[in-house]
Give the backbone structure.
Amino acid sequence: MKRRHPGKGTGKGRMQNRGRQVSPEALQEITALLSQQVIRRDLLIEYLHLVQDHYGCITAQHLAALAEIVNIPMAAAYETASFYAHFDIIKEGEAVPAPVTVRVCDSIACQLRGAAELQQTLQEQLDPTQVRVVRAPCMGRCATAPVAEVGHRHTDNASLAAVQAVIAENALSPVIPNYQSYADYVAAGGYTILQECRSGERSAVDINAELKESGLRGMGGAGFPTATKWQLVCQHAGPRLMAVNADEGEPGTFKDRYFLEHEPHQFLEGMLIGAWAVEAQTVYIYLRDEYPAACKILLAELATLEDAGLIAPEYVELRRGAGAYVCGEESAMIESIEGKRGYPRQRPPYVAEVGLFGKPTLVNNVETLYWVPAILKQGAQWFASQGVNGSKGLRSYSVSGRVAEPGVKIAPAGTTLEDLIENYCGGMAAGHQLLGYLPGGASGGILPASKANLPLDFGALEEHGCFIGSAAIVVLSEQDDIRDVVLNLMRFFEDESCGQCTPCRSGTEKVVQLLESGNWDANLLDDLSQVMRDASICGLGQAAANPIDSARTFFAAHLIVTDSATGGTTDNTTDNDRER
Ligand code: SF4
């Protein structure tokens, strides 16, 4: 372990170091905690997790000790630690949190299923000296809403009794689902494509041509052609790196978790093929912290791959996110992997040229890589021919909300909502009639029932002011209040804005204030929407206005809109709306 002596850096003639003094006890504790770790600046977030997991919080003294050990200023350690929601920084004199933390998801699918009532009940019924109840954004389990996380164990279809049972049993570790093992995957022909690539039977040029013909695009939300991205990275001189984006935080999205928890090796083979294609020196998997079961699975299966001789030790590094939606944006993810706060970068340069640690970096999403071995095994035409309504390939739709059978639905790209509901989801939930739907999670806008016949794929929804993104389909019914839906989405953006740029930081806050006051002021909302779209640095701020704009375009009949420019008011609401 490389460590700076606590006294090093004392100014000439000064009796004390500047800033916080590190207590010997705290230094000893953190030194012991990190005794098995290699000390590197970029691993700061991993160390913060170790401290948080061990002590249930991060005290100012422990943070100072960590800064000392990593050899960074206290301000840099604090800046990173305080950026992420999953780190509890405790200042001098502040009480440490209760031993157990219960996070209650309050994102849109859980809100529809009573998350607010659940949170209130838990806060009223659980002993606050033993249990801390806090809100949390989407946990990627929208099909089983409402969801709570007790320690690191999720309770699906959560209730007071279910949460109490987990606490009583002290069962705070994640439940590991059954998944396809390495042996089963190999028995089914797994890793043969990777071996063919590595042995020279297949060339990078052939692989690229096959992927191009298949029409595979980035399934994280951007839809960038995969083959083109691999080519672009290769155009820049090495050494190159690869970063897998497993940080699906878009409310309503849970398909990547499904693949990681059920078929991790198909994803891992796709990842290693990608790494081979761009000659990546090291691969980083950035996994959201809300997926503790997937974390354990990946750690175990990466060790299996090492044992099998498919990867060298430490060739793949698994990194835990720490509760920041913005880190799903690729440049913010890269900042986070470097151990910093997840501030999106100004581009150009793009990460394909200047990415992780300044090197050309291939960034791919989990689902994208999951499809790679299947395409190379079954052929580009197999994949491309699956699409409908002019689309190519298969898509994994995360469907939640008011349908009878929510879940991950693997269907042809371009499938319509009406087809998804009727043929994949068992129809609408009993007693519910379709009002509208979110085609791409919180940021993809909201479409009305009259547009349930649109193909759900990249490029098909933009003319309606929406986009498919990661295909997070949240179905709304006539029993849902569109005003509550929009407020929920806007609160999410306000919470998750990283604060780096003013249009997004202040714009989302101002919109929430307007909506909370019931004042849908058309003039102000137009201004805010425009400035967020035009002047925000990243996609979060640029798309944050989509819910408001969609609601005003398609659901005006459920809104009261004023206009501070004209002094007029338009009230289209019905008795039903007013009763809600
Ligand atoms: Fe941060 Fe929002 Fe600006 Fe993106 S748009 S950089 S999330 S403040």
Remarks:
- DSSP finds 24 helices and 18 strands in the chain.
- The CA atoms of residues 109 and 401 lie 6 Å apart.
- The longest strand covers residues 280-287.
